[in-house]
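Supplementary Methods. Inverse-folding protocol.

Structures were first reduced to a discrete structure-token string of length 276. This string, shown here, constituted the complete conditioning input.
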């Protein structure tokens, strides 16, 4: 019996080795995670589009816009998606800001306190409401730029090639500036912030014997101040008026008409009247 068992043939089993087999790593997991993330973002966007109003979507869009021209509306809204501009004091420090908060004072005048109220969206909404649907008046907005600074809301009025604010090389206000002053005067009557004015002019392409840039940079904001007072702005609100000549151009081309501008700062109530 033992001899019979010992005579059984020995079978050798060879394993077939396949090249490239074995563990392939987790690269597919990364690709899958990217796909899931993209789908989540896509459905989140669809949900936001369906759950928010147009004004609220503008408020969300403001989160990615540190500086906005005044003719782009960015008002907020109420509810879970309040639509407050993300450029608000409780979100960012210093730059373009405006957060939802209190509005109004004992005498009914809206106190424009940048630390707590929706500033930039409110001013934009006021300007757009004042303009209404008049296409001619809407053209005025192309002369305006609004941005927030550490000290307040800065409204910049500037020349365009085809429509200067003043008669060339003078401090005589043109029709565009007069209409802008009337428009801004209506809006500024709703707030009580101090006003700081700065004048800038473009450089001259040819050196002249008598440079008028300093005189113009002072006389032009003076004329604008008078226009604002004529539009109902309290003269006591103007705390400072400065002429900068052609020393602070707004563009790399110092002789460009865009450098002819007036900067009006609606200062914070708690900010010092001097300096930005």
């Amino acid at each position: 019996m033992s001899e019979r068992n010992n005579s059984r043939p020995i079978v050798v089993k060879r394993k077939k080795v396949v090249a490239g087999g074995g563990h392939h790593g987790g690269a597919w997991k990364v690709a899958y995670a990217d796909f899931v993330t993209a789908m989540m973002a896509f459905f989140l966007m669809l949900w936001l589009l369906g759950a928010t109003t147009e004004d609220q979507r503008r408020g969300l869009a403001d989160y990615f816009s540190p500086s906005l021209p005044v003719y782009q509306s960015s008002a907020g809204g109420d509810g879970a998606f309040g639509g407050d501009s993300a450029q608000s004091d409780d979100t960012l420090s210093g730059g373009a800001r405006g957060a939802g908060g209190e509005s109004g004072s004992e005498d009914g005048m809206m106190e424009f306190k940048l630390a707590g109220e929706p500033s930039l969206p409110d001013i934009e909404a006021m300007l757009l409401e004042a303009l209404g649907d008049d296409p001619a008046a809407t053209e005025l907005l192309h002369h305006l730029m609004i941005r927030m600074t550490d000290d307040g809301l800065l409204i910049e009025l500037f020349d365009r090639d085809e429509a200067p604010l003043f008669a060339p090389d003078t401090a005589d206000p043109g029709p565009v500036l007069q209409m802008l002053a009337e428009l801004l005067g209506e809006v500024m009557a709703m707030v009580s912030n101090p006003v700081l004015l700065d004048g800038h002019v473009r450089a001259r392409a040819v050196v002249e014997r008598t440079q008028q840039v300093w005189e113009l940079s002072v006389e032009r904001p003076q004329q604008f101040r008078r226009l604002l007072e004529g539009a109902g702005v309290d003269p006591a609100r103007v705390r400072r008026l400065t002429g900068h000549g052609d020393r602070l151009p707004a563009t790399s081309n110092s002789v460009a008409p865009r450098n002819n501008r007036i900067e009006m700062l609606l200062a914070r109530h708690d900010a010092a009247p001097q300096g930005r």
